[in-house]
Amino acid sequence: MPSTTDSVHVCGFCGKPLEFKELPKLFGMQDKDKDGNDKPFGFYQDCKCADAVKYRQECEKAEEATRKEEERKDFYKRLKCAGIKKRYEKATHELEPENTQKVLEGKSLYICGEFGTGKTHLASAIARKLIWKRKRVRMLTGIDITMMLQATYGSSESEADVLARLAKMPILIIDDIGKEPPSDWVLSRLFAVINARYDEMLPTIITTNYEKSALVERMGKHGDHDTAEAMVSRICEMCELIKLTGNDRRLA
Ligand SMILES: Nc1ncnc2c1ncn2[C@@H]1O[C@H](COP(=O)(O)OP(=O)(O)OP(=O)(O)O)[C@@H](O)[C@H]1O
Ligand SMILES: [Mg+2]
Ligand SMILES: [Zn+2]
């Protein structure tokens, strides 16, 4: 057994020698000391005096707190990357658990209601839970999508690349569809995204002020009416409807 009077192997709190716990040598292990004698294999056990125990508990607590803080920072970074806005980064909603479950089962959602009824809030609460579960989520407004596509002119990324990325995103949230200025150009791009996701049965969460028939009217206003109908028809089959009612929470 190694010397227990060695100052390295005494408790820093009470000064008692630490107990050496010898373990059976593993096959083929040959550890010799400087005189060529077999070295025991094992470890010095932690001291069980009150101060040493308290110190170890405090260290464990501090490590756990650091780990939690790192996890929290990483989570908020992932929310930001996914497009969740600061206002909604702490969003929770009573309808979130059941609807997150639906999305996890591959279903899509159509969250519809008047201004300020909590559509973006609910979609963000669902996104938070999905991101917490490390699912790949991207949340964009209809206007963001329009701007992303316009930004491809003169850039190295093509419009087709952006559309393909949106089409393939495992979970896509299109916030406020219909708010973008209606045009044939916007309609045909949104149709391409929705149609691709419909074909691949990828979960899509849509929030809007427009009921489905009103969305056809809105999107078809300056665009091809048949394309608007075809897009909303796919949305109808893909999505479960969640209608949010009540007053505008912003005015409350
Ligand atoms: N369930 C809720 N609990 C707490 N705050 C909420 C809840 N729902 C909505 N809010 C808050 O109310 C405000 C309006 O909600 P939100 O932005 O989600 O409305 P909206 O339906 O998306 O409106 P719009 O149609 O104008 O986009 C936000 O500040 C939001 O965080
Ligand atoms: Mg909104
Ligand atoms: Zn001790």
Unreliable runs, pLDDT <50, ≥5 residues? 1-5
Rg, nearest Å: 30 Å
Report the average pLDDT across residues: 93
Overall geometric form: elongated
What is the makeup of the main sheet? 5 strands, parallel
- Gross CATH architecture of the largest domain: 3-Layer(aba) Sandwich
Q: Give me the side-by-side strand order of the main sheet.
A: 4-5-6-3-7
The ordered string of helix (H) and strand (E) elements is EEHHEHEHHEHEHHE
Measure the end-to-end span: 75 Å
**SS element count, helices:** 8
Percentage of residues in helical conformation: 40-55%
Bin the strand percentage. 5-15%
Tally of domains: 2
Report the CATH topology name of the largest domain: Rossmann fold
**What structural class results from the helix and strand content?**
alpha/beta
Give every kind of bound small molecule, once each.
Answer: adenosine-5'-triphosphate, magnesium ion, zinc ion
Number of strands: 7
CATH class of the largest domain: Alpha Beta
Name the CATH superfamily assignment of the largest domain.
P-loop containing nucleotide triphosphate hydrolases
